[in-house]
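Friendly challenge for the regulars: who can give me the structure tokens for this chain first? No prize, just bragging rights.
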Amino acid sequence: MELAGAVSFTAAHTPGSYTNGLAPNQVAINTGENRVDGATAVWTDIDPGPDGIIAIVSSQYSGPLPGGGSGSTGTYGYAPVALRVEEFGAGPSAARIITQPVTQQIFEGEKLQLRVGVAGSAPVYVYWFKDDSAIPVASGWTLTIPNAVVTNSGSYFAKATNTLGSDRSSNAS
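First reply, four minutes later:
Bragging rights claimed.
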């Protein structure tokens, strides 16, 4: 796992996590072999910098078997089974789009799926628009059109809103 976007942080990983040879913002955890030792990736005192954005990235790990155990160097696929993010001391914040929808090329009959990532003080609501008109039944981080047809072509965007403000995503078509 990797903590991305942080200006500074303190690594406080529990025993059983593996950091040898990895960047300071990376950790590998052996979740295989029925391990029950509770190895956990932990970062504290995270400073996300002026943009206020961080990401936790989980990806394929290649290297020695983390935390010991049997096996040798190779490619291992580890995935977190849970993620808990806590923010302390931050005040209320307006809704904002932090991940923009991506333009896609699909064929008639295929599924169109657009997503946004949002941040801000809860509750944050997300509404979708096509060609500047609200889509009445579309709300949430993901817009899905299961069987797209030609009339679904257009320019889509999302709007995130809460009691403190709103933000508009970029267009995706």
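The radius of gyration is 20 Å. The chain has two domains: 1-88, 96-168. Your move, everyone else.
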